[in-house]
From TrEMBL:
Keywords recorded for this protein, A-Z: Glycoprotein, Leucine-rich repeat, Membrane, Receptor, Repeat, Signal, Transmembrane, Transmembrane helix
Main subcellular location: membrane
Domain Leucine-rich repeat-containing N-terminal plant-type, first and last residues per copy: 161-200
Name of the protein this chain belongs to: Leucine-rich repeat-containing N-terminal plant-type domain-containing protein
Protein source organism: Salvia splendens (Scarlet sage)
Amino acid sequence: MYSQRTRRYPPHSQSRPRTPLYTSGPSSYFSPDMYGPQPFSCSDWEQPGVLSDYYEPPHERSNSSRAGTVTPTAALLSPKPELGLVFTRIAPAIVSACEKPDMLGSALPNVRSPCWKDLRSPVARTSATTDSPKPVVPAAPKPEPAPHVPKLSFAFSLNFDTDKNALISFKNSITSDTNAILSINWSQNTSVCNWIGVSCGLKHGRVTALNLPRYDLAGTVAPHLGNLSFLRYLDISSNSFVGMLSFELSKLRRLKVMNLGANSFTGEIPTWLGSLPQLEELYLYNNSFLGKIPSSLFNNSKLQMLQILHLYSNKLSGSIPHVIFNVSSLREIRIGINSLSGRLPIDMCNNMPNIKFLALSWNQLEGQIPSNIWKCTHLDVLSLSFNNFSGSIPRETGRLSMLTKLHLGYNSGFQGGVPPEIGNLSRLEILGIGNASLTGIIPSSIFNMSYLEKLYLGDNKLTDLK
């Protein structure tokens, strides 16, 4: 759980932004002509940085409570002994023992005086004779030393200083802070948990989230950010960060969400991302990453919890690693608007039971669409447009009963017509297969789709309805 110990964010960043798909959202995947990019609005960011239509926040962040101050010393200090109460309780025994000195000597061998009349009860004291010897009052026992709290406090201080120093290094790497958010609010005289965009956990008071999307920040990401060992959520999307991602960020072993989208990061996608065992969401969209998608990122990696992968709108090339389709936890794969080539594996959907959103448009993919596509039974959006796919549209596509959006247009290598099984997609809202070299008759079954809102069949060689 997260405790937001920050000020309320400005309206433009109070909520975590939806992640755009090719700068277009799932409900309006393309512009009215189906294929032009179209922006969409951001959602409430209790669901950090993703599309609320397809995202269920695994971490259930709460920004409503404040973490309490850690004061371990109070709980560790022992109370002072109640000496008066103790001696009052043993007074009757001492009175009896005074009458029998030998018993007193055996019971209390360290007592110097044969009688402690002053420790008796008030009744016993009033009955004592005036010529009784002056009582000897023992010194109060020394209290046990309190636990050595300074070491504990010092350890806590070191941890807090580590987080603070990491954030200060991050701030110092910022070359432009247009709105003076960090320069004004991130004061070293206040707790980091009160800094805007910073959240701390309730248990340890450590930094667990850094949420700075759309703050008009520019600069590089300091490697010291990897020292935030309790960080679970990192969102610096929609800024102007540049450079390559430092290997030091691989130390963020508790990280669940990494959103670096819509910046200007360069270089290859780092392979160390595959060593983040708790990572559930990875957003690297709208950057300048180049080269191949590293297969080692998914092959024998620790990304067993990865659910969302957004790599679209970069400069990636080469083929899509087939091992990516073996990550059974994936719900969203968006790697369009790149220069990816090659064929899709024929068993693509054998190991993806949870996939809901598969977007590979605007690449150079070729070959046939795998006929086992129907095994991706939970698919809600399938976008394969603007590629070089050939062959016929698989009839098995009609078995995707959960599908609401199907984009297959602008694949000039298709042969044949529209399979009548498409009409079985009773939930389909958008069907786009324009400019796909289709021939034959338009099946009348497509008019059985009662939820259909947009139908694009233009620029084909289709004839009448059947």
